[in-house]
Design a protein that fits this description.
Shape: globular
Strand content: over 45%
Largest sheet: 7 strands, mixed
Order of helices and strands: EEEEEEEEEEE
Length: 124
């Protein structure tokens, strides 16, 4: 059974950092592009970042460029999202999702496997 599990969320002050992890079980991530999405209360879910299956290509939403870094360790079957200079508007539930295929193309519906999410709260 395909499963993604996020971890690393929590409460952090503005300007702080967190590293989220997305661990896969039941399948190998080698053939999947992985995206990080977030959903804040009352807002639509948005894609924050995405990394290609071999890690050679990454994409970021304008709102997080220069602050967030996505990476992956296929040997550990895990994808990471390093979040620095966090702002209150980054507060949301963060989800990772897998899309079969090499590249970060397509729509949200193309990401067929999702984790349960991890809460990130940025507040003083």
């Amino acid at each position: 059974q395909l499963q993604l599990v996020e971890s690393g969320g929590g409460l952090v002050q503005p300007g702080g950092s967190l590293r989220l992890s997305c661990a896969a079980s039941g399948f190998t991530l080698d053939y999947y592009a992985i995206g990080w999405f977030r959903q804040a209360p009352g807002k639509e879910r948005e894609r924050v970042s995405c990394i290609s299956s071999n890690g050679g290509s990454t994409r970021y939403a304008d709102s997080v460029k220069g602050r967030f870094t996505i990476s992956r360790d296929n040997a550990k079957n895990t994808v990471y999202l390093q979040m620095n200079s966090l702002k209150p508007e980054d507060t949301a539930i963060y989800y990772c999702a897998a899309k079969y295929g090499r590249l970060c193309v397509g729509r949200e519906v193309d990401f067929g496997s999702w984790g349960q999410g991890t809460q990130v709260t940025v507040s003083s």
